[in-house]
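Q: Predict the assembly, please.
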Amino acid sequence: MIGAILTVARRDFAATVFNKSFLLWLLMPLIFMTVSPLIGFFVGSQVARPGSSSVALVDPERRLEPHLIRAVDEARARAGYDDLRERFADLRPDTPFPEELAPPPDALQSPRLAELARPGALEALANRLDLDSKLGFGPSLSSFIPVIATVSADGDPAATAARLLRLDNGGDGARYAAVLLVDAGGERLVVGKGAVDVDRITRLVNDARQYRDAPAAIAVADAARKPLIVEKKVDRRADNERASRLLMANGAVFALFMLIAIMSQILLSNMVEEKANKVIEVLVASVPVPAIFAGKLIGMLAVSMVGLGVWGTAGAVVSAAIAPALPAGLLPTPAVGWPVFMLLAVGYFVTAYLIFGAVYLGIGSLCSSIREVQSLSMPATIVTTVTLILTISGAGNPDGGLASVLRVVPFSSPYMMLATAAVEPKFGFHALAMLWQLAFAALVVWQSSRLFRRGVLHAGPAPKLFGKKG
Amino acid sequence: MDAAVEAEGLVKSFEGRRVVDGVSLSVAPGSICGVLGQNGAGKTTTLRMLLGIIDPDDGRRTLLGSDKPLSVASRVGYLPEERGLYQATTAREMIAYLGALRGLPWSEGRRRGVKLLEEAGLGEHANAKIQTLSKGMAQKVQLLATIVHQPDLIVLDEPFSGLDPVNQGVLEAIIKRERARGATILFSTHVMAHAERLCDSLVIIANGRTRFSGTVDAARRTLPTKVAVELERTPDNPRTLLPAGFVGNDRSYRFDLPAEGLEPILRRLLDAGVGLRDLHVERPSLHDAFVSIVGLPADAPAEAA
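A: Predicted assembly structure:
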């Protein structure tokens, strides 16, 4: 049996590698490099998602809350007013500037600013000036003013802040980028992950302090100058490294996916060609069907290993040549380290290849023409594409529920586990995952070989999943 | 010694249609056996079941003493009806590969492949890709790949189809040579001439059933030998001179050779003074026997005489 497997594998390997089209296949990485900017854009949007510009306000005794709300409202009104003024100047450059758009006094307690902060006031002004209010007020209102959400504290405010920022698990999945704690000791801004404009928040807090001390508004200048205590709980450098690793995880997933897709298609066409040229009957008469099946899988696996070897060597040579010219730390080290990561990449490639290769080989054994290939492989292609999309989504948040599910589902497990290896320094569960994937691959190989026997010569009973015969 | 190939009551249905319906056969070691039948008679399905390519729904088969055909695959060579070779592979590598599938080392397969190609007049094409060979050449390459590992049993499905008369002769010579080496040969055909020249025994299949099993002579003997006589003078009463069932008139008559032989009839004709101008004994051809056997009702198997 082993001899038969190796004989079939040897022929398929030699027939593929010693073929001119194999050289084209080896140039595949160049195509990857061409499309990678697009992938990077998509992946980048996924990776940038953790954290947001929202700021949670923890103010159990409401020392600052009403004043901060007012400060935010008026800041929004001021931004909107500035926006209207610019728009009027842009739309009617020849019209005298109306008095209504004269810059309001930038002082606190301005009645005019307070009036514009009322809901609908800016829209009414835009209508009166015959500006198209439907255009909205640009990005200044929605993006530049942070969303302040009041959150009730449970117990220690500091513990509440840690919970809100999810500092205990690295900050992934936190809804807030920062927490503003207000107590008798003053105001503290605890910054987690994501984009936080600390200067802007500081200005808002200062405004709020002055509203709070309104009776002596003029005299509160000293209080306003009291600095806001800002604590950064997340190491930005570590944060950046993690983001880079997430990018790497997505890149690895995509590369693995493309390689598996290509190899599966080669297997599929190989099988259809074999059926078309009738060699298959001689094979089936000579060796057991599972040996043919395994031989074909192993033969193409060896082909892909040659490809990986060539690409790996070329990559190492190029890296060594250009490394001195690159800034230090441009390429992050995977969480498990490069040697282990590369070993895991090869391991997960093998398991993914066996799973998807067996599926496609089974499909190929049922097809006798390219048209049949197109229709029968469609469901498998949809499954693999959905797997890629979900895995890239899951890889953006390796601690999320989606990632956990994808690690278990056999069709996505190799991809998700490789992505995990890029960001999580855990080793033990890779062995467990590979065992699970190999067990599933064996099941798929067994089931597909039954399909193969049935499909190639219409021999044996119709295959039944988990049936005894066939 | 046990039969090289033995089958009893093989049955196979596809999609509810019974394609083989109780085929039985036995092939003696070192002999050449022909499986004859019309198109669609079930020959190919029978051979596939014998080889273990497909499993029978019912019945049993043994190949070289084993009821698991694939366990003796290294001692078997098979040429399928639908020929197939890798078009981008050279003739020598193709032969070596098919030999390797049967357990022959690649290097030995290459060496023997070149030798066989030279013997078959294809030595200069040993390193040519299959796609550059003519159909007849490719067919020869496949036959050589079938025998490269010197199998004990060679199964050929319609080996002569598509070959010109010269190459048919070459193939017949190869088959005889392999039999001389000691191999058992089982081949299917619907061309009677090949079977008549080559076969030690025959199995005739019709509608999925074995209708005849025996030697070529036995098949012929399923039909009576015909005798044609031409007399010098018209007999007054031919019924008293010729066996019952004769046909003819005036001086020309045909009748079946009776069991007691020709001598009593000739004596009667000479005694009657009608003279004997000409006499032919016409032995039935295999073609006649085949047509007769296949034309019998399905439930009336022909018996070997």
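Chain B has two domains: 5-220, 226-282. The interface with chain A takes residues 14, 48, 51-55, 70, 73, 76, 78, 80, 82-89, 97-98, 100-103 of chain B (CB under 8 Å).
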